[in-house]
C-alpha cells in the first residue's frame, strides 16, 4: 500500500503585497486620498477585524476594494487601536478617592508598532508594479513614510488572514 504525504507548504499562497504607511490621517481620509491617487474604490467594510489581547477585546477598521476586472483585492487596515479599560477607584486617604481609567494599545502586526496603516494587495503579482504604487502613495501630502514589507519579515502572518 502506497503512502502519500502532503505538506502544508504546498497549499500556502504568497501572492500578496503588504505596504506600510506612517501618517496622522484618519482612516476615512486616508482611504479618500488613496482612492484619488491610485484610481481605486476603497470603501468601509461593515465588519471590522476583531482582536483580543489579554482579555481586552478590540477591532481594527478596514476598507476594501475588489477589482473584479483584474481580480485584485485591496485592503486598507488600521494597525493600532487604543482601548480604554474600566475605571478603577482607589482610595488616596480616609476622605478622598480617585478614579483611574487605563488604556491598552493593541496592534494588528505587533512587530511593526510604529506603522499606522497597512495596505494588503492580493492576487496582484503580475498585474501591479509595486514601486509605482508606492511612488503614487508617497505623493499624498500627509503621508510621512511609505514602504513595502517583505512577507518573510512578518512574524504574525496569521493576523493578515481576513
Explain what the structure shows.
The mean pLDDT is 83. The chain has helices spanning 27-38, 130-138; strands spanning 16-23, 43-44, 49-53, 56-60, 62-67, 72-78, 80-91, 97-107, 117-122, 143-149. It has 162 residues and is mainly β. It has two helices and ten strands, in the order βαββββββββαβ.
Give a short account of the largest sheet: 6 strands, antiparallel
- Number of E strands: 10
The gyration radius over C-alpha positions equals 20 Å
What is the H-and-E element order? Answer: EHEEEEEEEEHE
Overall structural class, as computed from helix and strand content, comes to mainly beta
Q: In whole angstroms, how far apart are the ends?
A: 40 Å
Strand order of the largest sheet: 2-5-6-9-1-10
Instruction: Give the integer mean of the pLDDT values.
Output: 83
Question: β content, as a range?
Answer: 35-45%
Gross morphology is: globular
- Counted by DSSP, the helix tally is 2
Helix content: 10-25%
Low-pLDDT residue intervals, each spanning 5 or more residues: none
Per-chain topology:
Elements: E1 16-23, H1 27-38, E2 43-44, E3 49-53, E4 56-60, E5 62-67, E6 72-78, E7 80-91, E8 97-107, E9 117-122, H2 130-138, E10 143-149
Antiparallel strand pairs: 1-9, 1-10, 2-5, 3-4, 5-6, 6-9, 7-8
Which terms would index this structure?
globular; mainly beta; 162 residues; 6-stranded antiparallel β-sheet
Amino acid at each position: 500500500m502506497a503512502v502519500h504525504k502532503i505538506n502544508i507548504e504546498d497549499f500556502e499562497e504568497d501572492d500578496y503585497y503588504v505596504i506600510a504607511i506612517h501618517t496622522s490621517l484618519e482612516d476615512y481620509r486616508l482611504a479618500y486620498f488613496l482612492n484619488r491617487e491610485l484610481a481605486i474604490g476603497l470603501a468601509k467594510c461593515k465588519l471590522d477585524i476583531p482582536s483580543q489581547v489579554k482579555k481586552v477585546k478590540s477591532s481594527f477598521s478596514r476598507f476594501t476594494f475588489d477589482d473584479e476586472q483584474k481580480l485584485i483585492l485591496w485592503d486598507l487596515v488600521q494597525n493600532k487601536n487604543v482601548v480604554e479599560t474600566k475605571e478603577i477607584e482607589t482610595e488616596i486617604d480616609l476622605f478622598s478617592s480617585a478614579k483611574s481609567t487605563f488604556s491598552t494599545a493593541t496592534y494588528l502586526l505587533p512587530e511593526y508598532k510604529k506603522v499606522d496603516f497597512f495596505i494588503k494587495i492580493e492576487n496582484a503579482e503580475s498585474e501591479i508594479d509595486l514601486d509605482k504604487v508606492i511612488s503614487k502613495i508617497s505623493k499624498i501630502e500627509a503621508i510621512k513614510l511609505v514602504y513595502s514589507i517583505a512577507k518573510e519579515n512578518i512574524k504574525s502572518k496569521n493576523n493578515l488572514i481576513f
